[in-house]
Design brief:
An 8-stranded parallel beta sheet has the order 8-7-6-5-4-3-10-9. A two-stranded antiparallel ribbon has the order 1-2. The N and C termini lie far apart (about 60 Å). It has one domain: Alpha-Beta Barrel (TIM Barrel), CATH 3.20.20.20. The longest helix has 18 residues, at about 95-110. It is globular and about 40 Å long. By secondary structure, it is of the alpha/beta class. The chain is built from 11 helices and 10 strands. A hairpin with a 2-residue loop joins strand 1 and strand 2 (about 30).
Length: about 325
């Protein structure tokens, strides 16, 4: 290893170790991010997702999968009804609601943790919140639908603001940045400020660099290396590297073969200061992140006499 490589490695290992005190309060539970990294489990109710190819397009299977992810350790379940892979076909509001609302209804009956709706459409978000969703996860950072920002403010819903260059149809055609970390940081700072100005409580804002959304392999790696720049904005940072194309390029692996690479990227993000990780493989990620959190924050306080609250409603609660 050269001196330059060693210096880079040491710099990457100089992760922030202080506890944040952050907690994302939602109607159906609080996501604790103080001294731990939270996990958002992904439920794609789409026939054309890049990662799971429509395995959970059936509402019953999607609900069962979400409940399984919660049992494995997910703190939030993220439900999406429109694929955002590069070149994906847009769907109508009605079609998207027909996909996600039955799943949210089923999950709400079965879970006692927050549910997120992955949409950039105010009509879909409004209906999802009415059926029991808690969080709005908007890939456009409240830009694509002019009604979304006022809806989030009025509903007092936590919101994830994500950076994306272009649209899902165009974002990977030729993404160009002069300084990707600085540009993403400034964009997210601006969108967070706009949300606060519209009445969104800053304590309900989460920011997301948008790994894989209008970025090349080099851009994605630079954002993971420079994540501290985003953490410095003072908002919880969500990172979603799971099964992304940049991992496939590095490993020459199909989406279903990217588990180890996804875990490596997730651990790197956690050690760099991410507060929430959006993942497909919750069980495996929870094991990896427990180790990362122990390295970053120290071992968890033992509390053998305090049982963990159930994330899944038992039959007796039905």
């Amino acid at each position: 290893m050269s001196k330059g490589q060693a210096k880079t490695l040491v710099g990457m290992l100089a992760f922030p170790a202080s506890k944040t005190g952050w907690a994302l309060e939602a109607r159906h539970g609080t996501v604790d991010m103080n001294g731990r990294t939270a996990l958002m489990g992904i439920v794609n109710v789409t026939p054309d997702s890049f990662s799971d190819g429509g395995r959970f397009f059936d509402p019953g299977r999607a609900v069962a999968h979400g409940i399984e992810l919660a049992a494995e350790g997910a703190d939030i379940i993220d439900v999406g009804g429109e694929s955002t892979r590069p070149g994906a076909r847009a769907v109508s509001n009605r079609e998207e609601m027909e996909r996600v609302l039955p799943v949210i209804q089923g999950l709400r009956r079965g879970l006692s943790i927050p549910i997120s709706i992955d949409t950039y459409k105010a009509e879909v978000a409004r209906a999802a919140l009415a059926e029991g969703a808690d969080v709005v996860n908007d890939i456009s950072a409240l830009r694509f639908d002019p009604e979304m920002i006022s809806l989030v403010a009025a509903e007092k819903a936590p919101v994830v603001l994500m950076h994306m260059q272009g649209t899902p149809r165009t974002m990977q055609q030729n993404p160009v940045y002069r300084d990707v970390v600085a540009e993403v940081r400034d964009f997210l700072a601006g969108r967070a400020a706009a949300a606060v100005a519209a009445g969104v409580d800053r304590r309900r804002i989460v920011i997301d660099p948008g790994i894989g959304f209008g970025k090349t392999l080099a851009h994605n790696l630079a954002l993971l290396r420079g994540l501290a720049e985003l953490v410095s904005l003072g908002y919880p940072v969500l990172v979603g590297p799971s099964r992304k194309t940049f991992i496939g390029k590095l490993l020459d692996a199909a989406p279903e073969e990217r588990l180890e690479g996804s875990l490596a990227a997730a651990v790197a993000a956690a050690l760099a200061g991410a507060s929430i990780l959006r993942v497909h493989d919750v069980k495996e990620a929870s094991h990896a992140i427990k180790i990362a959190d122990a390295i970053r924050f120290g071992p968890p306080d033992p509390s053998p006499l305090t049982p963990n609250p159930s994330r899944v409603r038992g039959d007796r609660d039905a």
